[in-house]
Design a protein that fits this description.
single chain, about 160 residues, alpha+beta, Alpha-Beta Plaits, six-stranded mixed beta sheet, globular, binds flavin mononucleotide
Length: about 160
């Protein structure tokens, strides 16, 4: 059995250098996740993070505790935390996709106290669907070059990095 979790959080990095710092963070995280047999996907929308992680119970718990303590983000809201047999994102230790206004708005909803019940459930499903969409786009070779700044959240598209 594998544990998986999905959370959203707000970015605390300075706007001008956030994108570069996130690329750096992802490079380190990929190596570490591979060692822990954790896979998943991270979205950095410019304002928010959304991350799905899955792996062996103990490893995931240790990693998630570390992530929760990380000062580079805050207001962590766990949307899903459960167990499953098979991986949702088996091919990458950490897939990454960046700035999108659409995704930014979508993640922003989770910080609105009014989002509850069925509506919240639907929004969680849509977020997962976006994450699957970026996986498929990478698999199809629909990649765009990475950007070096994060002020481009007006760019209404996913920026996809090459596979790990
Ligand atoms: C949004 C976000 C997502 C992160 N995701 C991962 C991850 O998937 N794997 C990982 O090893 N570290 C991740 N980190 C970094 C960890 O929080 C931590 O800095 C790193 O694991 C090194 O921890 P240590 O300094 O205690 O060894 C993430 C950080 C942030 C802010």
């Amino acid at each position: 059995m594998l544990r998986f979790c999905l959370y959203v959080s707000t970015c605390r990095l300075a706007r001008g250098s956030a994108m570069e710092e996130v690329y750096h963070l992802v490079a380190g995280a990929r190596a570490s996740n591979r060692r822990l047999s954790v896979s998943g996907t991270l979205i950095f929308s410019g304002t928010y993070f959304a991350q799905y992680l899955e792996g062996p119970e103990e490893n995931l718990s240790l990693l998630f505790q570390r992530i929760c303590r990380d000062p580079r983000h805050g207001q962590i809201r766990v949307l899903l935390d459960s167990r499953r047999e098979r991986r949702e994102f088996p091919r990458r230790s950490l897939q990454f996709s960046g700035p999108s206004m659409f995704v930014d708005r979508h993640i922003g909803q989770f910080f609105d106290e009014d989002l509850q019940g069925q509506q919240r459930k639907l929004a969680v499903g849509q977020l997962l669907q976006m994450m699957r969409g970026t996986t498929q786009a990478i698999a199809d070779g629909r990649r765009l070059p990475p950007r070096s700044n994060c002020s481009g959240s007006e760019v209404d598209q996913f920026l996809l990095e090459s596979p790990a």
